[in-house]
Amino acid sequence: MARKVAPVDVRLAAAVTGGEINVAAFCREHGISRDTFYRWRNRYRDEGLAGLEPRSSMPRTSPARTSTEIEDSVVALRKELDEAGLDAGAGTIQWHLGRRGVRAVPSVATIWRILVRRGFVTPEPRKRPTSSWRRFEAAAPNELWQTDATKWVIAIGQVEILTFLDDHSRLITASRAVMTATTENTWETFGVAVATWGLPSGQLSDNGLNFSGRLRGFEVAFEINLRAAGVRPITSRPFHPQTCGKIERFHLTLKKWLRKQPLARALDELQTQLDQFIAIYNFERPHRGIGRRTPIERWSATPKATNPGIALPAAQRTPTVVVGADGVAVVKPWKIHLGVDHAGKTAHVMIDDTHAAVFIDGRLARHLELDHTRLYQPSGLKRGGPRRLP
Question: Is-contact 152 270, C-beta < 8 A?
Fold first, then answer.
């Protein structure tokens, strides 16, 4: 709570009144202490009117205050990151100070106060609280990738940047500059990513025609090739970019960095810039969404999801069902046995006239050729289990 400062006229009245004044009554009326009353009198006697001016109560020394050297390091790093087109928030600055061996790294709150005091923080309008968003994240690397294309301008005109990102680690598996994103160069870029980082189990995208023709009643080559490789194609709900929010956010970060670079004169120059930034992003830049770790650190910390590489059906239907207590998923007219280990779990089914593929928690739980002579599709495993000893 801020301390109440008495007006100068009250101070002057206390300083110049004669001895006949009732000091206790005067102090009660104006809400001051007797010590304050006599302090004003003494200051007026020694310094005149200047002695009645309000004075700071800040101590002459503050041993716990951050040193000027540390403050200067914070400001210098802020300028360095900002000029490079990289994130320069308090948390990022703290991370870099620690990596550079600075002794007594200040807290994020202290760095924030330094930035405010030095005039580096611009007030922003209140935003929707992050706690209001429904978030999802793949449990392991290569369980799900996200992809998107974004427009960028170089010397020859507008081009596009096509990027693939691992949902769990935020690692960029591929980023390619193209004149226009087509289903053919989208598949080629996916292949480059797979050659380096392995095959994902699922691939999430928006409904751009280079990614999917589902809303238009057909499949594009990218979807067909994904299914042939055993990768489940997933598209976001129309007009809901939050579903692909991780790749959308990456492109904002990428463009912030690109604006600090010289204007690329051709696609190959833009590709060189992309390669340079991807190296920074994957290996050097702390990511707030994964606990201030680099994407490669998180990628390396968890075993990778394994894609068995079994071709998936064309998915005339993609129902979502809950596995029953008996371990059976009912996808009318079929009853597909999955096992009681999956009881109560949500299953996503890709099914056509001849085949079905069942995914649970983003992983292929069962792939089968439908037996049209029966509605119940058994697992094919022997019933029972090892005989128990008496």
Answer: yes
- pLDDT above 50 for 3: yes
Domain boundaries, the chain: 8-52, 68-117, 145-301, 320-377
Regarding predicted confidence, which is higher, 385 or 111? 111
The long-range contacts involving 282-287, CB below 8 angstroms and separated by at least 24 positions, are 282/171, 282/172, 285/86, 285/87, 286/91, 286/92, 286/95, 286/96, 287/170
Beta-bridged to residue 145, according to DSSP, are 166, 203
**Spatial contact of 287 and 170, defined as CB atoms under 8 Å apart:** yes
CB–CB of 324/343 below 8 Å?
Answer: yes
Q: Model-level pTM greater than 0.90?
A: no
In 3D, which of 323, 363, 326 has the Cα closest to residue 345?
323
Q: Which amino acid is at 261?
A: Q
- Three-state SS at 365: strand
Q: Which two tokens stand for residue 223?
A: 């979807």
Asked if the model's pLDDT at residue 108 lies above 90, the reply is no
Q: Mean per-residue pLDDT for 322-327?
A: 91
Tell whether the torsion through CA atoms of 249, 250, 256 and 262 is positive or negative: negative
Residues 192, 204 contacting (CB under 8 angstroms): no
Domain covering 145-301: architecture:
2-Layer Sandwich (3.30)
